[in-house]
């Protein structure tokens, strides 16, 4: 699924209130080594050259921990530029696919940029792994999984069975013919042409938002009968619409699709790897009214929650993954033409965490974009607040901060429409 213009690397940033040394980061990296994947590399096996994991006999931790300095007095803009540069830099395949980059001087403390290839883990399993580096690993909010919980052993048995092909078949039959469901996915039209679509380059951009109080988001959702996720996705839709209009692109009545990963793990499954499906979520970016836009997103989310789309796409990609790389890339590109962005929302710790005694001020991550998608949107909650992360192709969207600003404006509009202006953090 990787392409030189879209590397499949998950990138994250942790900022600290106090300085860290390279020796400190090395100590943190040593905690990762309890997981075999962090000492294994990918090798080609057999006639077809299928990838497999192999212990790296020449493993050297110093090849995975390095320092990256910013100009004197540099602030967030410089750190965002560094993140964008690292997003465009491939990880070396002759070693385990991860790196920690220490920025020793950032604000009053330090920052650490984490890069881990998506083949090591998906975001749902990676967040708990990274947070186990904390001095006291936090209890994370439950991650939503497809389907209803039915309690106890039966729930775990069913969840584990998600990956049995028979379960995939049953899920599709529950809503009709498998062929009809797959045809419905493949028959989706390509997304309309906008500044977010076009030939990609290798240069990337990254930005993140100021924190928004999670209680403010919950308050809006409660008033309108929507979830926190509904509110945030609606706000992203509004931000995209604002961005398009500001650049002279007609947005009225426009609907764009986002590829949204759906967790298919059992509630007690914390193993590394990739166990997620995907759905195509229509984003009503052309709705000028914030409340109508939220209701439209909620309706769309309620539909995809009842749909077998996630498990079907998981099954399709898994099936193509057992064939040739060419066929897998073809499948990814066909599906990618039907969307404009990748969008994900991951719950982080509810309480502040500390690494080696240093308080973590902020956590942000960026989801990689597969195929020919040039926009990635990530939402992460931490310590009672949520932030938006935007990753873009520099050719298409050279100014991701404009999207971030539009996100704040769209949320303020939604919140104000219901009688209260969000309080500054």
TrEMBL record:
Class of the enzyme per the UniProt entry, highest EC level: transferase
Keywords: Acyltransferase, Glycerol metabolism, Lipid biosynthesis, Lipid metabolism, Transferase
Gene3D superfamilies from the UniProt entry: Chloramphenicol acetyltransferase-like domain
Pathway given in the UniProt record: Lipid metabolism; Glycerolipid metabolism; triacylglycerol biosynthesis
GO biological process: glycerol metabolic process; triglyceride biosynthetic process
Annotated ranges, domain O-acyltransferase WSD1 C-terminal: 273-414
Enzyme Commission number, as recorded: 2.3.1.20
Keyword Lipid metabolism: yes
Cellular-component GO terms for this entry: plasma membrane
This protein's record includes keyword Lipid biosynthesis: yes
Molecular function GO terms recorded: diacylglycerol O-acyltransferase activity
Similarity field: Belongs to the long-chain O-acyltransferase family.
Protein known as: diacylglycerol O-acyltransferase
Source lineage: Bacteria, Pseudomonadati, Gemmatimonadota, Gemmatimonadia, Gemmatimonadales
